[in-house]
Design a protein that fits this description.
about 110 residues, alpha+beta, two-stranded antiparallel ribbon, 2 strands, about 40% helix, binds zinc ion
Length: about 110
């Protein structure tokens, strides 16, 4: 098994802005600046309005790969196992089925 390469946010930002550049107004003035420091690497990125909007949209769209939604009971985050990390409830149809079965078993006194 190979280990994934260490994340490089400076390089990622450079590639992100390079993707936007062909569509941006070459005369547009920066409206914001993002400074990134990763170990000894530094990156200062002036953002035009288009780039700032694109970065904002990208950050807002991002979803954690471990995010499986919200708990139907308390609204806490669910893990990939559909167990609520806040209250421990097993969520979803599978969770409801397991909870019903557990209740029936408890009522029978097994
Ligand atoms: Zn919960």
């Amino acid at each position: 098994m190979t280990t994934p390469p260490a994340p490089d946010p400076v390089e990622a930002m450079e590639r992100f802005l390079a993707r936007i550049a062909p569509y941006d107004d070459p005369a547009a003035e920066p409206v914001a600046t993002v400074d990134l420091r990763v170990g000894r690497l530094r990156g200062t990125f002036p953002l035009t309005e288009r780039a700032a909007r694109a970065l904002t949209e990208a950050l807002n769209r991002w979803a954690d790969p471990d995010d499986a939604g919200r708990c139907g009971d308390c609204g806490g985050p669910l893990g990939q196992d559909l167990v609520c990390r806040a209250c421990g409830r097993l969520d979803g149809i599978f969770g409801a089925t397991v909870a019903r079965h557990a209740q029936r078993v408890a009522e029978r006194g097994d």
